[in-house]
């Protein structure tokens, strides 16, 4: 048995829009390319309905509450609960907590992590997120970047 004690690019902190993403375990750390990303998101944050084509997503709640929609089912997720969003099934979520929510996102394969890295900016821990206006151009860039990383946007955000 062996333990990974140091991984290249581990604990890298990024601003992904208004979300503070910390790469806890990069896909490059092991042969199975398992990625663990801690994500802190503000109230009301939501994702478009999307399908991950390359692998399942596992989301474990550390703080707060999220509302999930996975394969036609709508349900709340609280601290300590875990959601599986199987590859090929449409899913999205919205942050319900009055302050923010923090979760771990675990994926196999580097696609999600690479998309996050491509769309993010480095973030010192004491910084505020950059306030980038959402324009048709930035939205299209997001959709294109998702598509490059086997994430298909198929619908509107959860409202």
TrEMBL record:
GO molecular function terms attached to this record: DNA binding
Domain Cupin type-2: 39-106
Gene3D superfamilies: Jelly Rolls
Keyword annotations of the record: DNA-binding
InterPro entries per UniProt: Cupin_2, QDO-like, RmlC-like_jellyroll, RmlC_Cupin_sf
Listed PANTHER family: PUTATIVE (AFU_ORTHOLOGUE AFUA_8G07350)-RELATED
The protein, known as: DNA-binding transcriptional repressor PuuR
């Amino acid at each position: 048995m062996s333990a990974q004690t140091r991984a290249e690019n581990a604990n890298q902190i990024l601003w992904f829009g208004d979300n503070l993403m910390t790469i806890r375990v990069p896909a490059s750390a092991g042969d199975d390319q398992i990625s663990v990303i801690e994500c802190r998101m503000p109230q009301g944050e939501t994702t478009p309905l999307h399908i991950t084509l390359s692998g399942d997503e596992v989301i474990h709640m550390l703080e707060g509450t999220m509302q999930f929609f996975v394969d036609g089912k709508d349900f709340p997720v609280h601290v300590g609960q875990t959601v599986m969003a199987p590859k090929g099934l449409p899913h999205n979520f919205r942050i319900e907590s009055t302050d923010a929510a923090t979760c771990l996102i675990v994926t196999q394969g580097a696609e999600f992590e690479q998309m996050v890295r491509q769309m993010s900016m480095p973030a010192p821990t004491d910084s505020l997120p950059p306030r980038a206006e959402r324009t048709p151009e930035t939205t299209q860039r997001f959709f294109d970047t998702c598509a490059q990383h086997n994430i298909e946007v198929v619908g509107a955000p959860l409202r």
